[in-house]
Amino acid sequence: MDRAAHETSPQPVRLQDYAPPPHLIDSVELTVELGDDWTKVTAILSGRRNPAAGSGPAPIVLDGQDQQLQAVTLDGRRLAESEYQVGAEKLTLPAVDGPFELMIEGRIRPQDNTALEGLYRSGGLYCTQCEAEGFRRITYYPDRPDVMAVFTVRIEADKERFPVLLANGNCVETGELPFGRHFAVWHDPFRKPAYLFAMVAGDLGCVEDSYVTRSGREVTLRIYVDPGNEGRTGHAMESLKRSMRWDEEVYGFEYDLDVFMIVAVSAFNMGAMENKGLNIFNDKFILADPDTATDGDFQRIEGIVAHEYFHNWTGNRITCRDWFQLSLKEGLTVFRDQEFSADMHDRGVKRVSDVRLLRTVQFPEDAGPTAHPVRPDTYIEINNFYTVTVYEKGSEVVRMIHTLLGPDGFRKGMDLYVERHDGQAVTCDDFVAAMEDATGVDLSRFRLWYSQAGTPTVTARWQHDPATRRLDLTLSQATPSTPGQPTKQPMPIPLRTALIGRNGAPLPLRLDGEPDGGGATERVLVLDEAATTVSFVDVPPGAVPSLLRGFSAPVKLDAAWSEEDLAFLAGADDDPFGRWEALQSLSTRALLAMVGALRAGKPAVLDQRVVEAFRASLADDRLEPAFLSELLALPGESLLGQALDVWHVDEVHAARAEARRVIGETLFDGWSALYERLSAAEPAGGADLSTAAMGRRALANAALAYMVASGREEGIRLAVAQARPDGTMTRVMGALVALNDLERPERDAALAAFHDRWQNDPLVLDKWFALKAGSARTDTLDQVKGLLEHPGFSIRIPNRVRALIGGFTAGNPVRFHAADGSGYDFLAEQVLALDAINPQVAARMTQPLVRWRKFDAGRGKAMTDALRRIIHSPTLSKDVYEIASKALA
Ligand code: 0A1
Ligand code: ZN
């Protein structure tokens, strides 16, 4: 029997059932006594009845999980056990009417906490992760974001093993205790929800710096790492200072405490966490030097450090009323970190890489069984909703508001949002209302973007009449049904539009009926009905529309471009995104035609126009190397799979490999000249981390990969030389990626040398695991199974799991989707093993199975068999249950 049919199926939580908390907590005094057997936690809560939730006595109900309650004292009187009820996840206390003081004593065992939520041990370090609902594993508490309190925290621990004791805010007292123990007391003056609580205890190295805010306050900055790693924190520290400056300049947001701390830990479920004044990071997103981290790693670190820092205002000062509003802080903060990175580096390149992520991961989510709106209206396990929809699509929704209001209007809206809501827990609707009230722009229909799931398709058709010089552009929209939402309404869709003249220059635009277009060459057209036609006048013959410029809305565009139009835009569009998109579309059409040929048993031949467009781009020396490397990347296998009704994994893989071979071979001399020129420009050591230098390395690696793909020995020879493990990581990884699919001894030797050099460095070893798991070679699954026994692998460390298991199941479609179902069996087994240890990560690992409808009948059956095997487990977590049951629904 499916657990779905079982009477104890986990029950969903619904937005419509939201009710304000019956009691508020004003202050929390928490004492945590870390001990080898038990950790004792004492909480003194000062609370009162919430006037917004009615009057009269109401029982105090607290959340709690995985802990032993020792004693409860209410207003100075110890309660008898008969006076309260302890359920599996709730503690119910007597009804109270007025203010109260509650003391809760309990004990927990962080050393057994493998779920990495609440207080846990990572190596020799104690640390916390409380978002979303981890605080209830530390003490009984109203663990919901609309309860905001001032926290004072006292930590006690053995001094020798845990010399560093940290919590949010300012350290107000430290001292010695008997038996070699010591304590520290931290006070955070800002009211905050429990999910922003954090504490750390361990033996850590510390790197200190400082920052002077624009009003002249000095802030101490500290990054804590395992001793020995201090030398790898410089980039994170610089990124932090740049983020602080940017937030002052762009939004007027200044940091508000005297100290800002970051702690890097090796066992962490996600990327990082924005706890007030004490961010905790997955060490992978802090530690970097040119020998061990790639340029991509450096850029991700900068973006994530910025993201967590930016949460101080968008998330911490103003937080979410309930977890359905998660995108209030996440969509907005992703938008802010994307803009920060665009300002620090190349705006066009950043946009392209963000769009690629959205399309590769969010579009499939929006089209599959776990599709949900940016503001979900129901969930079983909130941890499953830290999704690309809430984060990345949420950011696109904020970006559309920015486009509709303009930068000044958006800034006015942000100012009003902060003025109204600082110190509060609010909703997405409050955010939109501030944007409206600050500018007078009506966003009532725009709110559908928060409530309606699914990716709209915009269809664009046009007709030019040479006699009247009119171009009629007809636009229409449709959003497919998604689970629970069979029909959709049209939404306002901002479409940045231009017309590119035959000479390659954008034309001044005038709409029919306008006396004068003002000379502007770009318009934001807002498609807010099911269909509409706009007419441009004075349009010369041969003009080609450039649509959805900058990817101005998260939609699929079906535009009537011919291959010639696309080739023209690929060389002429003045919008970087538009130019990249044109070449992507041209390549996608060609690759899909190759897939069709292979399906029909015919040879796959690459459309020559793609090669010519590549040749032209290669020769265009006005392009920045970083942008050129994006331009010359073919769409990935999963994007091609999505573009097909049925994702034929083998044919997609073969077609793409053949296209790369042809492009590599035909343009070999061009790649080779480029590679040589760029390698000569690379200073020894590779420590130049400027945007330009990173761009040159990206392009050199792209050229190298095409040379290897050509099959010529010279390409392999160059890659083998570049793969030598004494090089900088960007170059070594570029070479290893280029070699990774080859059935050649050189490939094995290069990987073995890399392993031997880095086997004792866990973060670099992860790269090796991911390479092994991501190889298209036929022996990959066997290799992966063998590596589960590698001394460097541990199922308890999420980074290892994501590198090895995720590297195979999410990063290697052609092998994971092997027709015999072996990849699915492997994943089912791993998900079940992991679920007993870390349900949150297990649920994420289940994702590659959910889109089984996208595959042929044989694979679809094998995938659903694997899902059934998972869901029939008698001890399944609600995390995995939610994903698997939705996938099978
Ligand atoms: N708020 C963090 C992400 C995060 C979410 C949940 C976590 O554990 C369940 C951990 C981190 C961010 O947006 O960076
Ligand atoms: Zn975030």
TrEMBL record:
GO MF term list: alanyl aminopeptidase activity; metallopeptidase activity; zinc ion binding
Aminopeptidase N-like N-terminal domain mapped to chain residues: 60-196
Full protein name: Aminopeptidase N
InterPro entries documented for this protein: Aminopeptidase_N-like_N (IPR045357), Aminopeptidase_N-like_N_sf (IPR042097), PepN_Ig-like_sf (IPR038438), Peptidase_M1 (IPR001930), Peptidase_M1_dom (IPR014782), Peptidase_M1_pepN (IPR012779), Peptidase_M1_pepN_C (IPR024601), Peptidase_M1_pepN_C_sf (IPR037144)
Xref: PANTHER family: PUROMYCIN-SENSITIVE AMINOPEPTIDASE
Domain Peptidase M1 alanyl aminopeptidase Ig-like fold residue range list: 454-559
Task performed by this protein: Aminopeptidase N is involved in the degradation of intracellular peptides generated by protein breakdown during normal growth as well as in response to nutrient starvation.
Top-tier EC class: hydrolase
The species this protein was found in: Thalassobaculum fulvum
